Amino acid sequence: MTAERVAGAALGVVFGFVLCWSAMVDPDVIRGALLLEQSYLFLFFGSAVAVAAVGVELLRRLRARALLTGAPVGWLRERPQRRHVVGSVLFGVGWGVANACPGPVAAQVGQGMSWSLPIIAGIVIGVRLFQRGGARETEPAADRSTPSGARLADAIAEL
Amino acid sequence: MLDQQLAWYVAGPLLGLCVVACRWLFNGRLGVTGGYSEIVGRLGRGCARFDWRGWLLIGVALGGTLFALLAGERSFEGYGWLTATFHGSERIVIPFVLLGAGILIGYGAKTAGGCTSGNGLTGTSLLSPASLTSTATFFATAIVVAHVIEAVT
Q: How far is A21 from chain B (nearest CA, A)?
């Protein structure tokens, strides 16, 4: 578990650093993109998705196993449900107003931006409200890959 | 070097590689909201031991700190359209607007099972129909909201 925590933190540091360097922590950059005045965000996002798609598909085809958990690499593709649309509309309104999403908000706070403190407080309240509603976890620690992998993934999620 | 926005064709692939690393390490989704969920949920149960998702979020904040230390002198005087629109004593409304936006972001992302990273980056790269729907929805909504704000301010 310690190796997992260290790896998670290290991955987060790289992720947060790139979000800062790409100026995703600057609300004016996000706003410029959402007003369709700047193309950076879309090129950045599109190239990230393209690289990620090729990389994860390669891992799956090579029948890789997760380095830290041993689970076979794989995932189930979820069908869209009402909650995906409703939740994303709420999220989109918040993003359009604050011009920062959960990753950049954390990086902003890490950078010492005091304006982002009310946003992060809001995210915590929003997540808590969702959890108090008794809903199941929508983002598990590991994806169910195959039937046997699913049991292992469940066991890991329980830890 | 750090004071210039990193070229998209470097920054994008780097972020994509983070998604691949997360898959290879944990067979997991790189979703920052999952980190908030883990930390808020555990603390709510009086426990401060977080799994990798909680540590990912802590790492993202530390990544911001590291960048600030290396990039040096930076000013965070204003905050986007809000400080450009509200001046003087009117600025008291800004924290409340941002708090409300944060609540929508947190509640909405959990309902949809991911934010810009979990659904937007990771889910779309897995070609998950649910994530593609979520991503199209939040981009479209945010674009409309930004234009409405632009029209009224």
A: 6
Which residues on B lie below 8 Å from A151 (Cβ)?
Answer: none
Task: Decide which of A92 and A154 is more confident.
Answer: A92
Q: Is A72 helix (H, G, I), strand (E, B) or coil?
A: strand
Contact B52 A96 (CB under 8 A): no
| B138–A73 C-beta distance less than 8 A | no
Q: Which among B140, B114, B15 is positioned nearest to A50, based on CA atoms? A: B15
Q: What is the pLDDT of residues A102-140, one digit of tens each?
A: 999 999 999 999 999 999 999 999 999 999 987 778 888
Distance CA(A11)–CA(A137), nearest Å, equals 22
Helix, strand, coil proportions of chain A in percent (round to 5)?
70, 0, 30
How confident is the model over A36-67, as pLDDT tens digits? 999 999 999 999 999 999 999 999 999 999 99
Q: Give the burial class of B152: count Cβ atoms within 10 A of its Cβ; 0-12 exposed, 13-18 middle, 19 or more buried.
A: exposed
Task: Please report where in the chains the tokens 């995906």 appear, as a residue.
Answer: A84
Q: Which of B2, B17, B22, B26 to mutate to test the interface with A (most CBs of A within 10 A)?
A: B26
ipTM: 0.96
User: What's phi and psi for B128, nearest 5 deg?
Assistant: -80, 120
Q: Which of A13, A22, A94 sits opposite B59 (nearest CB)?
A: A13
Chain-chain contact of A88 with B127 (C-beta, under 8 angstroms): no
Q: Are A34 and B142 in contact (CB under 8 A)?
A: yes
Size of interface A-B (CB pairs under 8 A): 501
Give the closest of A59, A80, A118 to B98, CB-based: A118
Q: What is the pLDDT of residue A128?
A: 97
A35, pLDDT greater than 90: yes
Six-digit token string for A97: 């107003």
Taking only the tens place, the pLDDT of each residue in B46-57 is 999 999 999 999
